[in-house]
Amino acid sequence: MGTQINRIEKEFLLKIFLEREIPISVHGEKKEGSFFITQFDDSSITLKNRTDTVLKFNKEEPILFYTSIDNTFFTFTSKVTKYEGNSLVIENSNNFCKNPERKYERINTHNMHVSFFLKGDTIELNFPKTDTFAIIEKPTKSEEFDDSSIAGLTKSFKEHIAWNVSEYNIVMYRERTPTSLEEKLITRLGKILWIPDTAGRLPDNEPMLSSIVITAQEFAEFLHNTGTTASLVKSEIAAFLYNKSKNNIYSEIYCPILYHEYAIGFIYAENNNKENKSFDVDFVQYIYQFSKVLSYSLEKHGYFEQQSQTMTRYQEPIIDMSAAGLLFATQSEEIDNKINLLEDIDITIKIKDKKIIIGSRIMRKFKDHSTFYFGVQYLKISDADFRFLFEYLYGKPFTKKDEMSWEGGSPPPQS
Q1: pLDDT for the residue numbered 103
Q2: What are phi and psi for residue 4, nearest 5 degrees?
Q3: Could you tell me the pLDDT band of residue 123, with boundaries at 50, 70 and 90?
Q4: Number of other residues whose CB lies within 10 A of the CB of residue 42
Q5: Under CATH, to which class is 129-300 assigned?
Q6: What is the DSSP string of 316-340?
Q7: Distance (Å, rounded) from C-alpha 295 to C-alpha 263?
Q8: Which of 29, 196, 317, 337 has CA atoms 20 to 30 A from the CA of 232?
Q9: Domain covering 3-101: architecture
Q10: Cα–Cα distance for residue pair 362/360, rounded to 1 Å
Q11: How far apart are CA 100 and CA 105, in angstroms?
Q12: Do 78 and 63 form a contact (C-beta atoms < 8 A)?
């Protein structure tokens, strides 16, 4: 937020801005321009556009202005009362701060909502639990996956991959538990074990699969946490891959089938040394997408009929948001009781026809009369989604300049 400026300081600064014709960056809804103050009184401030660029402001439109003097940065929030030609009149409000500390400016939103899932009453299922949580959503229509019946879905899957693999199988944990190292690994982490080539190495960091595939580091940590001496971890992994190669396995995939906090089974695919063919990124993504469709289809067709609703979906209005976080409000005491400060949740924002899922943390919560407010900081958002959100909010593409500066062009706050 920065440091609030009192009325006397504000009047003094406005006089300096007026006398020196200090450049002021005015930000409206998806627009910004350079202005200077021509006059002000207790109720209004009049500014003039410094360029010939035509900007259209609407009455009551919220605006922010940013400026600086001697490396001190100032921000001011207000709303438009009048705009004619290149002259802009705004309210002289008390929302004047110096040295803003937000990464990006907050934008007032209209008819936008944030949705998220919270745990409700749960009847435990007889499946092993994982360290992750999978949201079960209806898949988009696809010619590859028809979820009208489970038998039809699995049949089409097997027909599709039969040409690309030496062996494949779908194993469910309804009548058994994870037994092998591979099964225990994918169950615990809730991620795919992908071995591109048993004569090579486990993947270190595949950008397109970073959130769904087990890395060499994660495998090593799992071995260490389950009893392998740290000094023996590397040799254990080498022996693990060597034994597979010796057993005529060239490339291999174990993909867990996830349902909320459970691993309900896994999908197995193998290419042997005769095929001498590695499973590529596209094939891994195909297996992963099928696992999600299968989980949804199993729920749809009553496979978990002993399960009560474990997660409840909520949708609440967004008050304002930036490219780094948002503020939402609710009148639900249930939500207030369930969400704790510094709790991590996945939120979903829908903009036009695009759905953005963001890993987030609750950084603030407060109550005003009967309304509860939650300040959310984004922790995990894809680069493509971030750039889309930035351009939607600010009406301009994200640049290196935006990356290096904070709100209003100010430098990062000193720690």
Answers
A1: 63
A2: -65, 140
A3: low
A4: 7
A5: alpha beta
A6: EEEEEE-SSEEEEEE--HHHHHHPP
A7: 10
A8: 196
A9: Roll (2.30)
A10: 7
A11: 9
A12: yes
Distance CA 314, CA 113 (A): 10
Residue 225 three-state SS: helix
Question: CA-to-CA distance for 353 and 140, rounded, in angstroms?
Answer: 13
Here the tokens at position 344 are 């991590």
294 has a pLDDT exceeding 90 = yes
User: Domain coordinates of the chain in residue numbers?
Assistant: 3-101, 113-119+309-397, 129-300
Taking residues 312-324, report their average pLDDT. 89
CATH of domain 113-119+309-397: 2.40.10.220
Residue 250's identity, in one-letter code, is Y
Summarised one tens digit per residue, pLDDT across range 238-269 is 999 999 999 999 999 999 999 988 999 999 99
pTM recorded for the entire structure: 0.51
Evaluate if residue 1 carries a pLDDT over 70: no
Say if residues 307 and 347 touch (Cβ distance below 8 Å): no
The confidence score (pLDDT) of residue 411 equals 52
Spatial distance between the Cα atoms of 137 and 271, rounded to a whole number of angstroms: 31
Over 80: is that where the pLDDT of 321 sits? yes
Return the closest-CA partner of residue 259 out of 363, 351, 151, 124: 124
Q: Which one has a higher pLDDT value, 361 or 103? A: 361
C-alpha dihedral, 162 to 201 to 199 to 244, nearest 10°: -60
- Provide the token pair at 88: 């802009």
How far is CA 104 from each of CA 82, 107, 124, 145, 400, rounded to the nearest angstrom?
A: 27, 9, 43, 41, 14
